[in-house]
Amino acid sequence: MPNPMPADTIALHPETLPRLQQASTATVATLLFKRGYHNAYVQGTMPLGAGKRTLVGPAYTLRYIPTRPDTDPLDAFREPDHPQRVAVEECPKGAVLVMDCRQDASAASAGSILLTRLQVRGAAGVVTDGGIRDAAGAAALDMPVFAAKPSAPTNLTKHHAVDIGLPIACGGVAVYPGDIILGDDDGVMVIPRHLADEIATETIGMEEFEAFVLDEVKRGVPIIGLYPPTDPDSLTRFAAWREKTAAERP
Amino acid sequence: MPNPMPADTIALHPETLPRLQQASTATVATLLFKRGYHNAYVQGTMPLGAGKRTLVGPAYTLRYIPTRPDTDPLDAFREPDHPQRVAVEECPKGAVLVMDCRQDASAASAGSILLTRLQVRGAAGVVTDGGIRDAAGAAALDMPVFAAKPSAPTNLTKHHAVDIGLPIACGGVAVYPGDIILGDDDGVMVIPRHLADEIATETIGMEEFEAFVLDEVKRGVPIIGLYPPTDPDSLTRFAAWREKTAAERP
Amino acid sequence: MPNPMPADTIALHPETLPRLQQASTATVATLLFKRGYHNAYVQGTMPLGAGKRTLVGPAYTLRYIPTRPDTDPLDAFREPDHPQRVAVEECPKGAVLVMDCRQDASAASAGSILLTRLQVRGAAGVVTDGGIRDAAGAAALDMPVFAAKPSAPTNLTKHHAVDIGLPIACGGVAVYPGDIILGDDDGVMVIPRHLADEIATETIGMEEFEAFVLDEVKRGVPIIGLYPPTDPDSLTRFAAWREKTAAERP
Amino acid sequence: MPNPMPADTIALHPETLPRLQQASTATVATLLFKRGYHNAYVQGTMPLGAGKRTLVGPAYTLRYIPTRPDTDPLDAFREPDHPQRVAVEECPKGAVLVMDCRQDASAASAGSILLTRLQVRGAAGVVTDGGIRDAAGAAALDMPVFAAKPSAPTNLTKHHAVDIGLPIACGGVAVYPGDIILGDDDGVMVIPRHLADEIATETIGMEEFEAFVLDEVKRGVPIIGLYPPTDPDSLTRFAAWREKTAAERP
Amino acid sequence: MPNPMPADTIALHPETLPRLQQASTATVATLLFKRGYHNAYVQGTMPLGAGKRTLVGPAYTLRYIPTRPDTDPLDAFREPDHPQRVAVEECPKGAVLVMDCRQDASAASAGSILLTRLQVRGAAGVVTDGGIRDAAGAAALDMPVFAAKPSAPTNLTKHHAVDIGLPIACGGVAVYPGDIILGDDDGVMVIPRHLADEIATETIGMEEFEAFVLDEVKRGVPIIGLYPPTDPDSLTRFAAWREKTAAERP
Amino acid sequence: MPNPMPADTIALHPETLPRLQQASTATVATLLFKRGYHNAYVQGTMPLGAGKRTLVGPAYTLRYIPTRPDTDPLDAFREPDHPQRVAVEECPKGAVLVMDCRQDASAASAGSILLTRLQVRGAAGVVTDGGIRDAAGAAALDMPVFAAKPSAPTNLTKHHAVDIGLPIACGGVAVYPGDIILGDDDGVMVIPRHLADEIATETIGMEEFEAFVLDEVKRGVPIIGLYPPTDPDSLTRFAAWREKTAAERP
């Protein structure tokens, strides 16, 4: 089959997004690697602003191609159906606007006004492999925004918004509409939608195990035998740790 | 208007393609520059094989995005509707198959079997900003093929053929279906379709003038005053040269 | 005319620099784009240190070329006419020292001692497409410093200061002495001197309009019709907003 | 197991190298892809000189790291145990000297004198992701040489030969001593030694099938159904073609 | 001599590491430049987290090459002798783990669990020209960590740990085991072990002189004549400054 | 001294250029390395066309900076003092026009008409780290032309000719007017003018020795002891070889 099944044919378990909200991109990267997905990390994007919540949501895609004088005059945005403006107004609540800028951050793909509108409309966040202008404004939003870097030039300089809702490339990774986007301080992972449920489920035990390992390491336990737990005693201690931490939760 | 008019609404003068066949990419680059089109040269592609005819024809586009294990197993090509295979079978006679590989030539976008099929079917040629495998076979074809470089890996390694006939990026340039592609030893220019007639017409005089200038330079005339012809005498000599060379033609 | 008119033949309106001090690089990028200046953003530089004032001032240029053993021994700086040292001592009060390092940040173009001297002498700031050493010291200055990144090696490793006051390239942009430099969290724009007055004037209304739009967006107004204001009602509301905010100013 | 089994524990079938001599890198790339080896193509190297035989042989590795004044004075080569010189004298007959230059071709990794010595000693060829000096001399050898590009500077400028016979990186690919190197006009593939026998065997049928497909394409048969042969009739015609071409061989 | 003497044959003066702890990479870069070491700065790494102590210690090296399916399955870490895990358990107290990732940060070379173990074991710090996953956790450690950038993918994606204790390249610089690593906000310098004592000694006077110069500059003294002190009066003032500041120390 | 002495103060021995005409860039690279000149190879340029004579001559420099709409309209070349046109008309007989394009070959720095004019005027050749348009015409000239690659766009697209006769960077190397340029199939070396005489003299013996070594290697002599000739017998054989080849010369 050349392309994945359409997003609307792949229902998500109601706990999938909440579970991923508690997961890290590092964990998800490992779980995807395990399934043969070695190229799922969006190269070259970082969060604008520190201390934002983890970004989770289905991808809503916007594709840019290079500009031309006929397609990108300054009054291009006056068109009511300009795809960038339409994307900002139609990106579903809870979705992540993912933009394909061909990894060219020499111009912006959006600025803080559009990003604020997306936040007001309830978008989960934004990922672009291009630049963001008024990056300080973007960093100040509650909504997480991942970009290659701040970049002052208007997108008309380099990026012509051409269509919405198609499969795209972002940071060297394929993104199909509805794929689940996860972003934290290590950057952004793209989870193929049909794997999201099982990966979300697996993150729970894995994050728990890593928390246990970190506790062990802090008290001086060596890595070998513990991580991975090739020493059976590590698993025994993990079981005890789980009971204890479960008991300690309110 | 966000996008150019569809190709089928922009008829070409019957002499446009034959005229461009006699033109150079350098000349066309200048004529496009004059109209404000500063980004029309496909960066990073060169002809495979020497001594090919100039490539001219309308663009027929194929878009690749990065591969994934689910979309690109080795038996992907068994799908009867695999876009790369469909493109090879449906590229119109006289058209140029232009492929968007996101300027990533670490894998091939096609090989000599598909290129041979395109030649048999009457395609004008191929332009890709990715690699070509069995590049020696490609170089041996009559049909001109422009690529970033030879590259042995199958496209399944990096490039997932996702759709046909959409606007794409190739070598950093926007290519709309029907745009006129021109390729020679200096690489490839993309002529917006609505400008092709007037540019083709202008190339005639310009190529003629450059031939005159080259003759002048060879006989020792300085550049200044001649190229451009700010010295009115240059234009007089050009007029005489045109008469003489016209008379010499069979 | 091959080059712009000399800076001293282009007087600036006394309000131009103060007006630009209130403007953003994003706004200026758009105003330059409108005039056909598509390449005015200094690629690859960011401010060292957070929360600095906007950088504004005329460019004072220093050009580096690659080093050689004969031109760059360690005692090169003992020469009283070493161009880097001269530049630091002669950069006019209020000017911006702009350095051409050929976008090579593998070595420094200056360090915190020279930068401190510039601050003491009243320079408006510094822009380099090379590195800065003792970047922590540079970040702690009041004077804004824009650079590609911190870089410990002395400039003698890579950058030979060769002349002062010539047109240069910085971050891929032409910088003529006297051009107006504007820098904020989105990076640095170069405003051709002959356009500075009119651009500064235009920024006032544009920044005001963007502030209005942001207010509108925050209260839930959609982008389309508002930004740009294709809906006449947007302009009516803008007029009211201006009156109201003007009235609220002390 | 962290590393592959040592080369001397993995015997090669006597027909493996001869079979690969008839194979193309494109075919081998596909056969490796099929087994999950997606990164086996040495990025960024091309043959010096045209019309060389296919390069086949086991890898003999030489590793370079960056130079330092203490380790790389001009008389470094006077050391009788200089690893580059030792490699040239000890590379086994039939082996391929593969050099790790960290993909830095700003200096040479060898020149025509050393390459001639390797040819005299019976080496199968050379692969480097650095430069080659006296590249015209290298191109004139019978022995195939693959490099990033010609580069005049001595290796002392950038590349310190540090050891022989260790696993290395070359052009972004892992090369273990004894891995089988295959090079043609499309570049170089690295075949893990333990897979060489089965891949060599599979190339026979695959090259034959591709020859048949090319014949079919030349006579006008469409790709779909033929390549891959999803139409059973393609396989029938292939069987007939094989009989016919077998009969035609002397 | 092809390689430097082994580290255990080059004893360090007991004050060398403490002296370097007070020095800056900028100063050391200049002192190495003076001795002909022009390539000693690890290109492309920055500290994770702000406000860390200066990193000082002898290099303990770990080398990665590209991964392969046979050498890097997900259970690779179950091997008790996996070099990355062994390195984390055997890196000596006070040493700096330096990793050669071929300047490829598209995947991690370590994560916060291993880094925490290194901190618990008393390592001085970590330098990698690859990525770090769970970079927020790494930034929160007391131990300084220098990396190209955060990167979520597991090292199995790109980096196969192949050996420990060999000379490596890191950020384009040769690193021999036992070389002294110095890292601060300007990045990382590699001091050849045999030069560490004399360089450490020289840093004292040089840091002192730079502190004096900075004081002078702050009070308005021009650079020329002062830095370097070609005006003899500068040296006189420096002598007085030293006495005064010495007297002011507790 | 910040800059080298002016070219007209450094006379060349009359045999220097003829001697270099017989030398290779590889040999000169080694001789410059020996003198501490580690960065004298123009990175990223290759000869256009095969089988040209070695390029030798003093540098005549032309500097480009990025274009702007005001400085680079299409009629820019109508200016009688356009530096590119002036350079072509004033480049001295026997000199090499060296152009600084900031290593940006996305546009041309010259085309075959200007190059032909240079050939007619007796220039020794051309070196640019930008592109060349009508590269096929350039390749067909007798005069050697070194460039990054063919590139169709007019220089107005990217390169504004700003001045003549200043020190420049070309391919990452400092080029002072009058420096001696040497180019062959391995690319281009820049010889500081004050070293040209002694280097030219040394090349004679070194090229002779390399010819001897190649003869020895071809008859089966191992490298070690021969190259460099640490075995005294190598020098004895070299002496005999010199006598014999001298006797064989007509």
Structure description:
6 copies of one chain form a homohexamer. By secondary structure, chain A is an alpha/beta fold. Chain A has 7 helices and 14 strands. In chain A, the strands form 3 sheets. In chain A, strands 1, 2, 3, 4, 6, 8, 10, 13 and 14 form a 9-stranded mixed β-sheet that branches. The mean pLDDT of chain A is 96.
Q: What top-tier CATH class of the largest domain in chain A fits best? A: Alpha Beta
Shape type of chain A: elongated
The number of helical segments of chain A is 7
Query: What's the name of the CATH homologous superfamily of the largest domain in chain A?
Result: Ribonuclease E inhibitor RraA/RraA-like
Set out the fold topology.
The structure is a homohexamer of 250-residue chains.
Chain A: H1 16-21, H2 25-34, E1 41-42, E2 46-47, E3 55-66, H3 83-90, E4 96-100, E5 108-111, H4 112-120, E6 125-128, E7 131-133, H5 135-139, E8 145-147, E9 149-150, E10 159-164, E11 168-170, E12 173-175, E13 180-184, E14 187-191, H6 193-218, H7 232-248
Parallel strand pairs in A: 3-4, 4-6, 5-7, 6-8, 7-9
Antiparallel strand pairs in A: 1-14, 2-8, 3-10, 3-13, 11-12, 13-14
Helix pairs in contact in A: 2-6
Summary?
6 copies of one chain form a homohexamer. The first copy, chain A, is an alpha/beta fold and 250 residues long.
